[in-house]
């Protein structure tokens, strides 16, 4: 009896520790291949029916996709799973802010996708972001985030600003400080003091730093955010916007932001291509046709993701085929048409579905042309750093200190600096 | 397993079964051995599962955490540990984030625990009256406890929203300006305490109610005969009668307050959630631990915070014991 009890007790413990350390959830059974995917945000594969389409075309394949709403939560779980060696999916999404960290520290856990058939159509800088030092490719690009400015025609009009997208773009052509200047004009002439010019200063900050090839780190992987004039300049302008009351003091993708969109509490926001889907959904049909898209002062890239296949996957071959298909030019063009995720494939950029795309919701704006032009301006080389995502969050938080807590920009910078040191040290 | 019936009461098998076959004696000896094992060892086997589970899921993590806290180690590369001795502890001592979190944990703890227990006491007193549909009310006070922290915190986050939240809307009816619940320190702490109070008051009220029902009725009758009002009865009979339960709920609430995590996390959703607001204005120790471990991925420092919390609880209870003894001596 003692033996039985002891064995069952140990069985319990062992069962918790070791049972699923091998697989990734996928596998083959009765001629069916199951592929599991871990995704986040609105990557669009599930939402637009692409996965269903693939399953229809490949009746022996079943795809199970888990979509986490928030990337931070998703990445934390992914890190834990990578460390524990369990709980991983066959295919995992990788956000751009994490690309460097994963290719530096976890590359042996991903399948090398270099040379996979039919995957030589990506923008070179996109591909280089997930290529390790010894030329291993740990993921394939889904979308990129060329930026524009989304604005409300009706609110611009009541503040005496131009409303036609060409003229609006001229307002701030070539320099982000002109965007802030336009904001000051807006604030002065606006008849409704409940409406702010922009949603948050951190959106502006992001747009400014992402237009440069070196941001928080240099090519050698050293932290340079504290001395990089790009970061300093962006901080200065963003804090100027914050202290001049041009912002609605919201945090993007946080609770107050969506009702802000729905209730029109701000007149513009810097928007990467993938944000259009969010705006049109949250601002709702009532605001359809009031929004428009204008060219940003400078081209920049915010966001974009990758799909990687895990080394442990028992269905690695099938998973690689799926990833290649999901990131193929046709599917990227389709996703852009459907939800506005801008292609990372050179081939897709030339396809008529992309070039001629317009958006009904945004007053028929030629978003294909606007974002393509913005994509051309994105620097060819973008230096990523290991903790880019974390540092970006800390900067947003630092700007909130100025915006909503009335701290001085200097004080907020010092706090930010200290926090980054803690976070990456 | 055991063949206890064949063993004579005097426990001397040789005497009861004189020289039969050799194998018989052998059997006897074996069964005695089994019997002894059964009596002596089996109880251990019965309680073993608990201790094995305890060792695996409580004791081992505790020891392992202390081991990690002496290293510099990142979540993504747990196999690479660099020995740093007590550096993490001295760094934590010098870290104003730690003191800030400690203070927040304390203030939110007081803001939530004190009103919560007082309200629970009052509620239990009311429920203790004979009233119609008492079962309904007793179940009703428990429903907030049955909702998940996540759901509760989410609803409250929407209620406390700055621009379009219901609470600010109601305050605007009486002429109070929009309060930025998230960004103002005391407003945020009050809001979080509200969530905690809402969730736990009913639970504590039921504990008090159970204790109150064990207070002998004749004490109330005697008090009533002496002309004590309801309020005096409450103070002089009820409260002393359930003193042990009150101490118990204080202990429970202290532990709960020290580990406060879910409510502030969800209250400050997203990247700012773990930091407890842009200025860490409502970051508790639990959140600091999470931030170090699962946002900065520094497991060594996270483990250090965990141990600091553990030691803190021990200190709190030591103080509580001392206070109790001093009070007892004075009484």
From TrEMBL, chain B:
Annotated TM spans: 41-63, 101-127, 139-160, 186-210, 234-255, 304-323
Family annotation (CDD domains): TM_PBP2 (cd06261)
UniProt superkingdom: Bacteria
Membrane topology: Multi-pass membrane protein
Listed Low complexity bias regions: 8-20
Residue segments, region Disordered: 1-27
Limits of the ABC transmembrane type-1 domain: 102-320
Main location: membrane
Keywords, sorted A to Z: Cell membrane, Membrane, Transmembrane, Transmembrane helix, Transport
Keyword Transmembrane: yes
Localization per record: Cell membrane
Pfam families to which the protein is assigned, alphabetical: BPD_transp_1
SUPFAM superfamilies: MetI-like
PANTHER family assigned: ABC TRANSPORTER PERMEASE PROTEIN, INNER MEMBRANE ABC TRANSPORTER PERMEASE PROTEIN YCJO
Family, per entry: Belongs to the binding-protein-dependent transport system permease family.
Protein name: ABC transporter permease
Lineage, top ranks: Bacteria, Bacillati, Actinomycetota, Actinomycetes, Kitasatosporales
């Amino acid at each position: 009896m003692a033996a039985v009890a002891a064995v069952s007790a140990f069985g319990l413990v062992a069962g918790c520790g070791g049972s699923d350390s091998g697989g990734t959830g996928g596998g083959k059974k009765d001629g069916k291949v199951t592929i599991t995917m871990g995704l986040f945000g609105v990557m669009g594969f599930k939402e637009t029916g692409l996965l269903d389409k693939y399953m229809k075309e490949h009746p022996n394949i079943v795809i199970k996709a888990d979509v986490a709403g928030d990337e931070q939560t998703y990445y934390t779980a992914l890190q834990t799973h990578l460390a524990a060696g369990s709980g991983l999916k066959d295919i995992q999404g990788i956000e751009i802010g994490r690309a460097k960290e994963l290719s530096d520290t976890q590359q042996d856990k991903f399948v090398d996708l270099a040379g996979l058939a039919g995957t030589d159509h990506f923008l070179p800088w996109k591909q280089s972001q997930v290529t390790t030092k010894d030329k291993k490719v740990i993921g394939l690009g889904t979308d990129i985030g060329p930026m524009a400015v989304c604005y409300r025609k009706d609110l611009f009009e009541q503040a005496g600003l131009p409303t036609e997208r060409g003229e609006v773009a001229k307002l701030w052509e070539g320099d982000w400080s002109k965007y802030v200047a336009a904001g000051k004009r807006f604030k002065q002439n606006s008849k409704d003091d409940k409406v702010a010019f922009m949603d948050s200063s951190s959106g502006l900050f992001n747009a400014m730093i992402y237009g440069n090839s070196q941001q928080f780190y240099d090519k050698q992987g050293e932290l340079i955010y504290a001395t990089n004039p790009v970061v300093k300049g962006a901080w200065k302008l963003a804090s100027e916007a914050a202290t001049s009351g041009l912002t609605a003091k919201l945090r993007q993708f946080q609770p107050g932001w969506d009702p802000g969109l729905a209730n029109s509490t701000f007149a513009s926001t810097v928007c990467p291509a993938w944000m259009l889907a969010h705006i049109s959904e949250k601002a709702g049909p009532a605001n359809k046709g009031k929004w428009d898209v204008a060219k940003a002062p400078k081209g920049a890239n915010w966001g974009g993701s990758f799909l990687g296949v895990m080394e442990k996957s028992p269905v690695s071959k099938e998973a690689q085929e799926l990833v290649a298909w999901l990131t193929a030019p046709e599917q990227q063009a389709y996703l852009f048409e459907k939800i506005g995720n801008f292609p990372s494939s050179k081939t897709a950029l030339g396809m008529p579905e992309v070039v001629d795309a317009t958006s009904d919701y945004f007053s028929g704006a030629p978003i294909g042309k606007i974002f393509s032009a913005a994509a051309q301006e994105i620097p060819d080389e973008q230096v990523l750093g290991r903790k880019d995502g974390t540092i970006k969050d800390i900067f947003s938080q630092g700007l909130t200190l100025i915006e909503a807590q009335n701290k001085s920009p200097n004080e907020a910078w010092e706090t930010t600096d200290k926090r980054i040191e803690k976070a990456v040290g | 397993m055991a063949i206890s019936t064949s063993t004579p009461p005097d426990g001397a098998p040789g005497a009861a079964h004189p020289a039969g076959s050799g194998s018989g004696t052998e059997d006897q000896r074996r069964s005695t051995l089994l019997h002894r094992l059964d009596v002596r060892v089996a109880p251990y086997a019965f309680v073993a599962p608990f201790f094995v589970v305890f060792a695996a899921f409580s004791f081992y993590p505790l020891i392992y955490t202390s081991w990690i806290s002496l290293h510099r180690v990142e979540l993504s590369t747990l196999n690479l540990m660099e020995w740093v001795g007590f550096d993490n502890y001295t760094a934590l001592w010098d870290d104003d984030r730690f003191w800030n979190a400690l203070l927040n944990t304390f203030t939110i703890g007081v803001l939530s625990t004190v009103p919560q227990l007082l309200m629970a006491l009052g509620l239990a007193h009311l429920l203790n009256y004979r009233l119609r549909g008492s079962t309904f009310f007793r179940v009703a006070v428990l429903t907030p406890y049955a909702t998940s922290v996540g759901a509760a915190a989410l609803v409250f986050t929407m209620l406390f929203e700055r621009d379009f939240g219901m609470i600010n809307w109601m305050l605007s009816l009486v002429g109070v300006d929009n309060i930025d619940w998230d960004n103002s320190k005391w407003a945020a702490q009050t809001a979080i305490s509200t969530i905690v109070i809402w969730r736990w008051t009913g639970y504590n009220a039921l504990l008090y109610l159970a204790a109150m029902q064990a207070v002998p009725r004749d004490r109330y009758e005697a008090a009533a005969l002496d002309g004590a009002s309801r309020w005096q009865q409450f103070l002089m009979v009820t409260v002393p009668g359930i003193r042990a339960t009150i101490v118990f709920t204080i202990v429970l609430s202290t532990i709960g307050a020290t580990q406060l995590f879910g409510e502030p996390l969800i209250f400050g959703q997203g990247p700012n959630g773990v930091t407890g607001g842009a200025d860490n204005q409502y970051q508790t120790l639990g959140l600091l631990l999470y931030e170090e471990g699962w946002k900065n991925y520094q497991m060594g420092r996270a483990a250090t915070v965990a141990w600091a919390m553990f030691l803190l609880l021990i200190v709190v209870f030591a103080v509580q014991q001392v206070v109790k003894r001093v009070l007892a001596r004075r009484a």
